[in-house]
Amino acid sequence: MKKILIVGGVAGGATTAARLRRLDEESQIVMFERGEYISFANCGLPYYIGEIIPQRDALLVQTVDGMSERFNMDIRNLSEVTAINREKKTVTVKNLKLGTTYEERYDVLVLSPGANPIKPPIKGLDEADNVFTLRNIPDTDAIKAHVDNKKPKSAVVIGGGFIGVEMAENLVHRGIKVTLVEMADQIMAPFDSEMVSILHKHVTDMGVELILSDGVSYFDQKGTKIGLNSGKVLDTELTILSIGVRPENELAKSSGLELGERGHIKVDQNMMTSDPNIYAIGDAIETIDYIYNEPAMVPLAWPANKQGRIVADRICGIDSKYPGTLGTSIAKVFDLTAASTGHNEKALARLGKTNYKTIHIHPGSHAGYYPGAFPISLKLIFEVPSGKILGAQGIGYDGVDKRIDVIATAIKGNLTVRDITNLELAYAPPYSSAKDPVNMAGYVASNILDGLVDVVYYNEIDKLIADGGLLIDVREPMEREMGFIEGSINIPLHEIRERLDEIPKDKELYVSCQVGLRGYLAARILKQHGYNVKNLDGGYKTYSDVYG
Amino acid sequence: MKKILIVGGVAGGATTAARLRRLDEESQIVMFERGEYISFANCGLPYYIGEIIPQRDALLVQTVDGMSERFNMDIRNLSEVTAINREKKTVTVKNLKLGTTYEERYDVLVLSPGANPIKPPIKGLDEADNVFTLRNIPDTDAIKAHVDNKKPKSAVVIGGGFIGVEMAENLVHRGIKVTLVEMADQIMAPFDSEMVSILHKHVTDMGVELILSDGVSYFDQKGTKIGLNSGKVLDTELTILSIGVRPENELAKSSGLELGERGHIKVDQNMMTSDPNIYAIGDAIETIDYIYNEPAMVPLAWPANKQGRIVADRICGIDSKYPGTLGTSIAKVFDLTAASTGHNEKALARLGKTNYKTIHIHPGSHAGYYPGAFPISLKLIFEVPSGKILGAQGIGYDGVDKRIDVIATAIKGNLTVRDITNLELAYAPPYSSAKDPVNMAGYVASNILDGLVDVVYYNEIDKLIADGGLLIDVREPMEREMGFIEGSINIPLHEIRERLDEIPKDKELYVSCQVGLRGYLAARILKQHGYNVKNLDGGYKTYSDVYG
Ligand SMILES: Cc1cc2nc3c(=O)[nH]c(=O)nc-3n(C[C@H](O)[C@H](O)[C@H](O)COP(=O)(O)OP(=O)(O)OC[C@H]3O[C@@H](n4cnc5c(N)ncnc54)[C@H](O)[C@@H]3O)c2cc1C
Ligand SMILES: Cc1cc2nc3c(=O)[nH]c(=O)nc-3n(C[C@H](O)[C@H](O)[C@H](O)COP(=O)(O)OP(=O)(O)OC[C@H]3O[C@@H](n4cnc5c(N)ncnc54)[C@H](O)[C@@H]3O)c2cc1C
Ligand SMILES: CC(C)(COP(=O)(O)OP(=O)(O)OC[C@H]1O[C@@H](n2cnc3c(N)ncnc32)[C@H](O)[C@@H]1OP(=O)(O)O)[C@@H](O)C(=O)NCCC(=O)NCCS
Ligand SMILES: CC(C)(COP(=O)(O)OP(=O)(O)OC[C@H]1O[C@@H](n2cnc3c(N)ncnc32)[C@H](O)[C@@H]1OP(=O)(O)O)[C@@H](O)C(=O)NCCC(=O)NCCS
To answer: Minimal CA–CA distance to A53: which of A166, A216, A133?
Structure first.
């Protein structure tokens, strides 16, 4: 009878344990969890604080008793594994209720210890009694109690990642005035800057004060004052510190398991660590990215769950392998949905990749003539000349999750931008258009690959005009009243064939419209009349998202 | 200069014309449309009648003037092409305004004439003045005028396909009592019977009187009485005849183009007819199905649009090919969404395929602990033993379109049921679960392929019990109060390990629960204790959808 020990009883650990038991009634399974609760819904915590999720119980997906009974396993909560004794194949466990310590033998050890919120040694932090991090149920209880009892009117969220932004939203939902401070020049790292502009505007519209490119220098007066690097001082009654997580790697490190550069536990595609009797999964590990096989650390629930199932399979002799992480992610940002998959341009730059192009389109979430359609801002990044899809980002009020999921699926199916024009997606007016936004992204990208049109980008056009290029805005005069690119001239699309003689042949020529479609039509006309012309990708919409 | 004539100015025709002009400024493009309007939103027509779409103008995606100007083409509406003279490479055109007839020469001819509502020679139909079909703007105007002016209190919709069901919904929305008569034993042919049960219940709940397995025998009293085959007589103030469409094939037939068995124009993967100078696309053609390369006739907007673009490419020397039609489709059915892709079991039976299995699951549209989640009834059909995905059907209040689109994409990426467990889909609580419903479908199907569990189906279990099999319902006693399968005994899942001695080893053994998950857990336990056991696929939910 095999004895399997699992460290960590939430996303990765509990999933491993459940699948293990399904595969094998006989083996002995012991799951250790430092905290009181196992198998809770980490991802729901902000929404319980915001009272979107009304019942605390709803967060507890499984209880120690329920899971022990259903899966016939030995679950020890309030039990911290403090050491791995690899030679002996034992772990040292501290019973946090009793304060006692004991050793437990294993045949196989699975580590799913997760990650910890980063708490840097900022001056005054230790004296502050209103600064919280959010990882588990006790953290949640503490924040919720502070909100319920102290009824803060103002709060500061430090860090604009997913959890920071979700907390900002939920605190606003509780009637609190929120200031969001972010060290980088943008929130929500998975998005490139022109995409995130949309989010910056939206969170600001929703009443959040956004402070970018600034960080916390010190806390003062028990945390009620926060000094920023810029010299600015903020008043706060509640502060959420959400500047990222650090892998929980103490056990692995002290027992000499191989770690990655940033301290994550290294595993192979079987989730095996450098010790063949020890597997590791979840937020604590370094795996590979699906697209380039580069090291990837993606602390999200899907990988943890998936990897947990794989480990269980492997322990039971089933040859499952982890294909690497694509990094698909999503967040509700007030009324918007922001989702992405694969790499963004920042990541490509870090990896030194330059053989790619991007497109930006703004198709409706469904047919425009059916009520309730909203534009989706969709960015697609693809390899040149192969057309391989490297990543996508979508932001909008509706239908964003669907399009990113379809693209994530296309990537796993090795479909190129040409292939996604062939995706036969469900169309009726309330759901999509006869050419779905994903088809459309494929068309627009393929046209570039095929040389039917050349494009320039939102961040290039101003300089090109300044350098003497001519930009023709092919929208209707009325549309220009809402804003236009400085230096552009106006020839509406439907007049362009008649007004060719007004267009000089000796200038660098560019065209633009509202979203890129009419610019493309104009570019095709001009190109066939011998002009060397480029269309402004994403049109005035993408340009004004950034500069408007 | 090439001269291209296009017959039909809506989905397929207008799309061909637009892409043609983008590719080629020079060629002469003439588009003939019999009706007054081109490029209208066929799919929006029911919703305009229902006043969900308030503005008639919204249906007109392009006008003759607007499109002529933008695309510099010769658009002739109210112009019917009455003959193709293939030897001369001309068509005969009748100007319906003037009543005149002329010939027009072509280098390439594109046919996108669509399809016509079937109007069988039913007794009394010609005398009826309240019976309508719905295909175009004049049809729409006539129905809407009848509703607006005559204010009917009751209506009969004949035919329960997509258009019939959409019309039923929209007439109900106008306050009309609707009876839906369908000749088959189910509405919405893309769905298998156990899935469509959910729709039958819902449309009935929404106030529609549903008459299945019955057809119209005669109309009487100017159409205000409808006699059915069963002898039943219905009173009606408005009747919509929507029993299907027939390809508009007169031109093709009279000019000797090759037709398929059911009268559709035959084309190859280049959309070329049996005459190399003539292409055909859209509802009028027979193409191949993506999965088995069998003949396929799918009168939907995506194929028409896609094929239009392909024809334009080919005419301009670009090597685009049509990969065949998957048949992805979707409809809003009152508050439900019903979507499908690939083949259903009825189609597989017709094709003589038996090497497949199905699963039925009912996962939440998003995490259960986040408000607003609804179960999705999801059916997946997969080849055995390859795991190739053959089709999927989904019905639910939310998130159905996304899952069917993901599966349609997976099919195009040649992903198997095992591969879809690896799809990394966007997860945050408002959008999905850490294991998305599509992942879950993959897991459930893979477990069957891997022999981890055997299943029986909703339509087999009653007989198996009658034949002496033992069904153990592993739900909690309280759940059985809401209904259970006759003849089953109850041992809750968490007691099963202790009560093994109650379970006979000499009987055919089955387990069931609410949706299949706990049944699976029980089956795994029993199997490992030496029982030969099968789990009821889809649980009591699927069973009671049909028999409940
Ligand atoms: C507020 C919040 C919101 C989130 N939202 C999302 C989201 O929307 N989408 C998404 O994909 N992901 C989200 N995540 C991330 C997701 O929850 C994690 O990626 C996932 O839980 C990681 O699983 P894990 O098993 O690695 O770690 P965890 O689920 O954190 O489990 C690790 C457990 O191990 C225990 N442990 C650690 N060391 C020891 C030890 N030595 N002995 C005993 N026990 C130990 C810890 O106490 C912890 O309970 C969110 C996370 C948080 C905190
Ligand atoms: C009410 C309704 C709802 C629908 N809903 C959906 C939906 O939700 N999703 C979906 O995918 N599909 C839907 N469809 C189907 C979709 O509209 C068709 O599949 C699509 O329009 C087919 O394109 P087509 O070019 O082949 O035919 P059409 O778009 O019908 O165009 C054919 C045109 O050719 C003209 N024509 C025919 N013969 C001649 C001739 N000899 N000379 C000149 N002109 C001629 C006709 O007048 C017609 O206007 C719906 C259809 C209807 C009627
Ligand atoms: C609750 C928890 C222990 C469940 O683990 P689990 O049993 O693997 O997951 P589920 O309850 O979703 O069940 C999935 C299993 O049921 C099977 N299943 C699901 N629906 C089924 C159905 N209708 N019929 C048959 N089998 C079904 C699946 O195939 C899968 O079994 P497998 O892995 O052996 O193939 C674990 O996911 C957990 O702790 N979650 C909370 C923590 C967390 O994930 N946090 C991050 C997100 S907030
Ligand atoms: C209106 C109609 C003529 C438009 O045809 P179309 O021009 O091919 O289609 P769209 O307006 O959607 O434009 C698509 C083109 O613009 C390009 N495009 C779209 N968005 C773009 C953007 N943001 N930037 C650059 N190019 C863009 C696409 O690449 C595509 O061009 P391509 O085919 O050369 O690659 C035709 O679709 C029609 O008649 N529709 C109504 C009838 C119908 O379809 N009915 C059934 C459904 S209700």
So the answer is: A166
